[in-house]
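Lay summary. Proteins are chains of building blocks that fold into shapes, and those shapes determine what they do. In this project we predict the shape from the chain. Here is one chain we studied, written as its sequence of building blocks.
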Amino acid sequence: MKKYLYLVCLTFILSAVSCKQKSNQEKIETAKTVEPVEKWTPIFNGKDLNDWIVKIKGHPAGVNYKNTFITEDGCIKVNYDEYNDTFNASFGHIYYNKPFSNYKLRLQYRFTGKQLSDGPSWAIANSGVMIHCEDPKKIGVDQNFPVSVEVQLLGGLSSEERPTGNLCTPGTHVVLDNKIATDHCFESSSKTYHGDQWVKLEIEVRNDSIIKHFINGEEVIQYCKPQYGGEVDFNKEHWKSFEGKPLKAGYISLQSESHPVEFKDIEILEL
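And here is the predicted shape, written in a compact code that computers can read:
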């Protein structure tokens, strides 16, 4: 009888240990398969521009000339209602008030309305998101564009292909296809998006290493090693002294280039 009870107890103990080991193993396997939740943070609250700095050519930082940038319907809108159809080369940018280095940025954009009559022909349905920008408070009053890397946004114009999510390099160079890319703009592999449809943009920025552009979830261009270099039409001697140095961080800005455009759902994930 004692022997029988001993065997029953031993069987119970071994069974309990086995169940515990199985439970622990299941926990380990579950932990391996569950992806960490990404914590995206809105950098536009959908209501006002309190966290943003406007800089428009011909005016000091902080002056929102003719209400170029407004908030409406949960969007930041590039608005030319007060321009009387005259752009006068008033290239502008609106900067988030904090620089970043390693991050993912995502937003949606769309082109609306018509370009101002004296806007340059290349600026029709043309805007951009500038990354690794110089400090907006230090930009020259008559400066057209910040030294930065531009994620160029283009809308379709006709039946011809016009990709978006392209790369442009105002005052900078990058390494593309294993060599220094010194041209100003480079086309992505994206589709053409016509009309006023919303397009999803995501940018992955890894300091002065790899940068990727995504359009509607698809990677369309990748490059690396952003650095100072190239032609600038302002403070030439100053920027010449930086040539070849890595560009590791900077501000994020949205462009106004004479065609109305809207941005919404602007979020960042710091890496």
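What the prediction tells us: The chain is about 15% helix and 35% strand.
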